[in-house]
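Submission checklist for the structure archive. All mandatory fields must be present; incomplete records are returned to the submitter.

[x] Identifier: DEAD-box ATP-dependent RNA helicase RhpA
[x] Organism: Pseudoduganella flava
[x] Residue count: 489
[x] Sequence attached
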Amino acid sequence: MSDIETTAQPATPAQVRFSDFGLSPAILQALTDQGYEHPTPIQAQAIPVVLQGRDVMGAAQTGTGKTAGFSLPIIQLLLAHANTSMSPARHPVRALVLTPTRELAVQVAENVANYCKHTPLRSTVVYGGVDIKPQAQIMRGGVEIVIATPGRLLDHVEQKSISLSQVQMLVMDEADRMLDMGFLPDLQRIINLLPKQRQNLMFSATFSPEIKKLANSFLTNPVTIEVARSNATADKVTQVVYKVSEEHKRDAVAYILRQREMKQVIVFSNTKIGASRLARGLEQEGMKASAIHGDKTQQERMAALEAFKRGEIDVLVATDVAARGLDISDLPCVINYDLPYNAEDYVHRIGRTGRAGASGDAISIYSDKDERLLADIEKLIKQTIKRGALEGFNPSGRGGEQRHGERRASARPERGERSERSERPERGERPDRGGRPMAPRRDKIDPWFLKPYEPSRGPAGATASVAPAPSAAKPKQKVAALLGGLRKE
């Protein structure tokens, strides 16, 4: 493997069109159906290089169109093998796209299906969390393009429902995320199953030293395409952070959502249980919210995502499983309920908004314990994030935020969480409706327990002895008799 070459091309001029790349009329028709005419910078630079058969490392900000940057030239190259035969042998797997998450796999598969809908090429997606049999049946029928998560792909390899012996192109989408999730052994095993002669493409928003090391291990004379500074955030995304105490973070999120009357917002949490609790809390505030994380079934996750896209859900509370590859149009804002432990995840999270040149807001909530995480993020993106103040937010109230003058009296902290009030009454005290402590609650006590001890008496009135002598009428049995070992007299 040789050193990585780098292309340094200017941004795409407005007059460049997809038709300038020599793509098939069937592909151009599909792009017209989607309303696409001009390529993005990553697409304009990647498509010609991929069409030449070169290996590529593509780095671009999230939301700049990396999927089309590799899928369009792949479809164009595979058209030479396209046919309408019903025989599965005429439709072997020729292109393999690996993604770190189920949601990203589905997103890529939808785009690929749209791009090749006017061609005879077949594509499918395989991922875990669902029944493997329907997937196996589709692949046994023959498909040229497979989009897969690594674990489920290896399941199909073991069941012999897929053959990788004729793969001509391998794509690793969001490769850095796959390494973060521990997929390196699976990736190496998959690479070993592929033919030695093939074209390799890696696309991601960031390239860490570990990713570059992996790329050097299997890419041949790759061309690196970077359309933006590594780990840069989109210029049209307005970033701001608000500092609140840890126990008032949930109220701060509810306050921001209500004050700005936001719709179509993704709120990121670091933990699955935190996402579920926050979603329930927002629902109690009267908002349409749902959670999406790894403990949800695939059907539940997809249903929540589709409802969010249709506008039936206003707030989607998600862990980082949803931070990569989700292409949701008109997403005006993302909120970091928790700052991510990995600074690079911040770039991917806020990349959900401000996509394809649109503007967006990235709001983060942090407390004293998150100062180091915020410093790491600012060091990575090489800029200082604006500190803001939540005007009108009153965390000293009963629930932090005042809702039309008061908060519902029924609001209670979730089980296992600290109270959201800044001061808690002592145990045994409970505040009345005016906030004044009341006298400790006294449970009713049975008077019988307050009487002095009196020893029990026999029928004649005499006090019963503490240790009465054993009755003489019943002689004590010998232990040997109980064990069946007493000798006969």
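[x] Structure attached
Curator remark: DSSP finds 15 helices and 15 strands in the chain. Confidence is low (pLDDT under 50) at residues 397-440, 458-472.
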